[in-house]
Amino acid sequence: MTLDASRLIDLERYPIHCNGTERDALLAQVRADLARDGCAVIKGFLTTGGVAALVDEANSVADQGHWSKSRTNAYFTKDDPSLPEDHPRRQFYDRSNAFVPADNFSPDGPLRTVYDAPGFDEFIRDCLQEENFYRYADPLADVIVNVAEEGNGFPWHFDTNNFTVTLDIQNAETGGAFEYAAGIREGDENFDEVARVLNGTSDRVTVLELEPGDLQLFRGRYSLHRVAPLKGNRPRYVAIFSYVQEPGMVGAPERTKQLYGRTLPIHHERAGQRGDAYID
């Protein structure tokens, strides 16, 4: 049975598919939030039934997630002994969580029904006000679910994708706050301020508590961010929809292997094709 996006998304409250004053007002608010610090949250974007449907789907595929435990720096690069010991590139942290790759989600399932909903891409593009706007072409990563359990978090890092759109599906019992330092490397790497975030002395960190059904737009390519450790028996599920500035972009082979446990031929064929020169 084909799902109806209107049963998953609260289109009465957020008519993203219809031009008009309500959509315009929503756009204005999201744009203002993005301009302020690169982060905007649309509270209760999903209906109660939509949240339940996505929780059921996430439960059904959670065992397909690639679980990994590793020590990573904010750039997902290897240690560089030529740098000082206190350099941000030499600060490594434990990481333990899972990503359920995109090819585990049915084209007519609830997650992709939200992603393919009429007006969804256009709304996201209008929010970001980007002329160059494309779905991430990575067949393992265009729309995924992150799974984390007690003790797990995602340490400080920058995103590979220029724009990240996330949908909170299920929270852990406690913990799991989203923390970010907005625009910390807008224009350059800004290692000094990155170091202050990592050692806990920066005054640029915002702590954000998201709830199931909240839609978040985030410019994570330029903002250092993390998910705080979790507590309790209930796993945390967050869907990630990815958009980029260049057509045909996919993840680098090394990072794809880290996150999803495998690569596809396309990752090797398009290795090195990026629209910026940041070290990750």
From TrEMBL:
- Give the family from UniProt: Belongs to the iron/ascorbate-dependent oxidoreductase family.
Family annotation (SUPFAM superfamilies): Clavaminate synthase-like
The organism of origin for this protein:
Roseovarius aestuarii
InterPro entries named in the record: BesD/HalB-like (IPR056470), Oxoglu/Fe-dep_dioxygenase_dom (IPR005123)
Entry protein name: Fe2OG dioxygenase domain-containing protein
Entry-linked PROSITE patterns: FE2OG_OXY
Keywords assigned by UniProt?
Answer: Iron, Metal-binding, Oxidoreductase
| Pfam families assigned to the protein according to its UniProt record, in alphabetical order | HalD
Q: Ranges for the Fe2OG dioxygenase domain?
A: 139-246
Highest taxon above the source species: Bacteria
One Gene Ontology molecular-function label: metal ion binding
